[in-house]
Specification:
Strand 1, helix 3 and strand 2 form a beta-alpha-beta unit. Helix 2 packs parallel to helix 14, helix 3 packs parallel to helix 4 and helix 8 runs antiparallel to helix 9. The protein has 360 residues and is α/β, with parallel strands linked by helices. It contains 14 helices and 7 strands.
């Protein structure tokens, strides 16, 4: 650590923003992350097909799965240009499975150079497509075969993305795979891969065995913190990330979801700009969020948190540790989602309550 100066002190019994920035390390981190406040996202289902089928997949719930595919690169190019015109600067390409339509991914990248692709990693996405690649991992190979009907999936994912700077492995904690994270993290770290964490968020109506309860969320939090401490060079996460995503209350209850599906306002932020396009390039505001057809009360999804938590700057500017925790969260989110962004050392080494709530 460098540049630490005088700690922040209260002004007239209340923390002012300038007080929180008095620490040089905190101020430097604030200046580092605020450069990316220009990011404005929307998401796009690139195809309605997938080469594996997972228990609890949110895509195959609701109406979006029935949208016909638009496979015309010209139509996608035109859509990307229109997205730029209305202020979108970042695209999240998903599906079903986007690696099945590399020509459309290439078209999007030509127009919109900032973005990420959510993939199962079964197929290699061509290196010329310079988006972040989020590779979903749901446990060890035995669990992947049982839950995702895919044999030796982790080995295939590691072989496809060995040494690839685009790749981030996203381990989704379900109620059943918490104790597998140790061996999975060991394999990913052993190949110098980057790893972050997600928490299974049940699709609407899902009551299957992957759904979390209070005990499994607390066990997940302990596992996250243990693996973060064991593999600090490989794991992109923070204490506050663990707190936010394993709390007994979901993200909407803790922070208030910013996505149109739960946010009626069209005045500012995601309520004004965010769209979730289906594979036919239509969209429906009433269901628009980053993971449609998720049970909102159970939503602890990493993609949702990257917008919902980061949008609550002023609620976290209440005291030094809460603000440092928020900076750790934003620093983590940018390292996971933005090519070339390097995560710094976490600023807060203890668990901090979400504003207005206790950690239980």
């Amino acid at each position: 650590m460098t540049n630490r100066t005088a700690p922040a002190e209260k002004t007239e019994g209340k923390w002012k923003f300038g007080d929180l920035l008095r620490d040089a390390q905190v101020r430097d981190r604030w200046e580092k992350v605020r450069k990316y406040f220009f990011l404005r996202e929307s998401t796009y289902d690139m195809t309605n097909r997938c080469n594996i089928r997972c228990d609890g997949c949110y895509y195959y719930e609701g109406e979006k799965q029935f949208a016909p595919e638009n496979r015309d690169p010209g139509a996608w190019r035109e859509r990307m240009h229109k997205e730029k015109e209305r202020g979108i600067t970042y695209v999240v390409l998903a599906g079903a499975e986007p690696s099945l339509v590399p020509e459309l991914l290439e078209t999007c990248f030509e127009v919109m150079p900032l973005g990420s692709i959510a993939t199962n990693g079964f197929r290699l996405i061509p290196p010329a497509i310079g988006y972040k690649i989020h590779i979903s991992v749901w446990g060890n190979d035995e669990t992947s075969r049982r839950v995702r009907n895919a044999a030796n999936l982790l080995e295939r994912q590691l072989d496809n993305y060995d040494g690839d700077p685009r790749a981030v492995f996203v381990y989704t904690f379900t109620k059943q795979n918490i104790r597998e994270i140790g061996e999975v993290a060991e394999r990913i770290a052993g190949r110098n891969g980057k790893l972050t964490f997600n928490v299974f968020s049940a699709p609407v109506g899902y009551e299957g065995p992957l759904r979390h309860d209070r005990a499994s969320l607390e066990e997940t939090r302990r596992a996250m913190l243990e693996i973060l401490a064991r593999h600090p060079a490989s794991v992109l996460f923070s204490n506050y990330s663990a707190m936010a995503h394993t709390h007994g209350l979901g993200l909407h209850a803790l922070y208030g979801c910013s996505y149109p599906r739960r946010n009626a306002s069209t005045d500012i932020g995601l309520g004004r700009s965010f769209r979730q396009y289906r594979a036919d390039l239509t969209w429906d505001r009433s269901v628009a969020c980053c993971v449609p057809d998720t049970d909102c009360d159970d939503c602890r999804h990493y993609a949702a948190g990257s917008a919902v938590v980061t949008a609550r700057l002023f609620r976290h500017a209440s005291d030094p540790d809460t603000f440092r925790s928020w900076l750790d969260y934003v620093d983590t989110y940018l390292a996971v989602w933005v090519m070339g962004y390097e995560k710094g050392e976490n600023l807060c080494d203890r668990l901090v309550d979400p504003p207005g709530f206790s950690m239980k």
